[in-house]
Each structure stands twice: as C-alpha cells, then as structure tokens.
Write a structure and sequence with these properties.
- This protein is α+β, with helices and mostly antiparallel strands.
- The chain contains four helices and six strands.
- A four-stranded antiparallel beta sheet has the order 3-4-5-6, with no helix packed on it. Strands 1-2 form a two-stranded antiparallel sheet.
- Strand 5 and strand 6 form a beta hairpin.
- Helix 2 packs parallel to helix 4.
- The radius of gyration is 20 Å and the shape is globular.
- The N and C termini lie far apart (54 Å).
- Pfam families: DUF5641 (PF18701).
- InterPro entries: DUF5641 (IPR040676), RNaseH_sf (IPR036397).
- It comes from Schizaphis graminum.
C-alpha cells in the first residue's frame, strides 16, 4: 500500500536540519527577547505560540503561477492544515504603556512585537548581498515575483508584487523596477 518512510536527523545534531533548524533558532531568539519581560499564564503563552506559528507558516515560498497579474503564493500552511491561514486584524498595541494593557492586549502586543522582529530578520535573510568589489548577480526579470519590504505591516500580511518593467542605469545595471502590486504600480 501507500506507506510513508520517515527520515530523521541525528539526535543532538541540529546542524543537519539546515533551514528549518535555522528558522527554529530564529523564532526562539525573538521569542526570548519578546516574552522575557512578561509573566504569562499557560493559556497566554499557548496563545502567543499559536499566533507566532501562524505568522511563520504564512511566509511565501513560491508563486502559484507565472501569470503577471496573479500575486498568489504558496505558503507552508496548506501542507500543515490544508488551507490558507486567516488572521483577524487586531489594533496596534505597540504604542500603549504596559500598565494600561489588559491581559489580552498584552498577548497581542507580544505577538505584534515578535512579528515585527522576526519578519524583518526573515526579509533581510532573503536579500542577496554581494561584496562591493564583486558585481551583483541578481536575476531581475520582468514577471519575477517579489516580496516588498515595508514597515508597520500587520501579521500575516506579505506585500507581494510582480516586476513589470526594468529601468537600467547608464552602467547597464538595473537598480529601479516597476512592480505591480495589489495597490497598483510601484517604482
């Protein structure tokens, strides 16, 4: 019949896990920084962890099609739960002082802080960097799906777009592109 063969990494050897172990390490570091100053109940901690799990499993992996008008991407969520993730918008709690927050608002503030730290680091890791004395080998083409880095984006919101036009400089290197987004064309 149909059987599944499981392959496990060696115990106490997370370096064999590569990408997923790096993601676990990143989450642990940001979670420690975000939750360290709070005394949370079991249910509050469980809620924070589930919301963080939702954020991480919403990250875009690959585009679903090559259509220039299609901005849909595949995320880890369908593999885990069989459908896309839905996150109900929550008011921004980051500006409120601690002593005025209710317990629920505190959980939301922790989740939003974690999202801001983790998503920023994740986007920085995706960016290819070259040393200044080596030419960059970026593969920038019309139709390429891109992830747009913006500040103050709520959890689970990844700003996606497709390159519609290239604007190379006098040296022939493309540093400016036009991107089709849900909000229109951006340059």
């Amino acid at each position: 019949g149909n059987s599944i063969t499981w392959h496990f990494i060696s115990p106490r050897a997370p370096h064999f896990g590569g990408l997923w172990e790096a993601a676990v390490k990143s989450v642990k570091q940001h979670l420690n920084r975000t939750v360290a100053n709070f005394n949370l109940t079991y249910n509050e901690m469980y809620t924070v962890l589930v919301q963080i799990e939702t954020c991480i499993n919403s990250r875009p992996l690959i585009p679903l099609s090559n259509d220039s008008n299609d901005l849909a991407v595949l995320t880890p969520a369908p593999f885990l739960i069989g459908s896309s993730l839905i996150y109900l918008p929550q008011p921004d709690q980051s500006y409120k002082k601690e002593n005025y927050l209710s317990r629920w608002e505190r959980v939301q503030k922790i989740t939003q802080g974690m999202w801001k730290r983790w998503s920023g680091e994740y986007l920085n890791q995706l960016q290819v960097r070259a040393k200044w004395h080596q030419p960059a080998k970026a593969d920038v083409r019309v139709g390429t799906m891109v992830l747009i880095k913006e500040t103050n984006v709520p959890p689970l919101q990844w700003n996606m777009g497709r390159i519609t036009a290239l604007h190379p400089g006098q040296d022939g290197v493309t540093r400016v592109v036009e991107v089709n987004t849900r909000g229109g064309i951006k340059k």
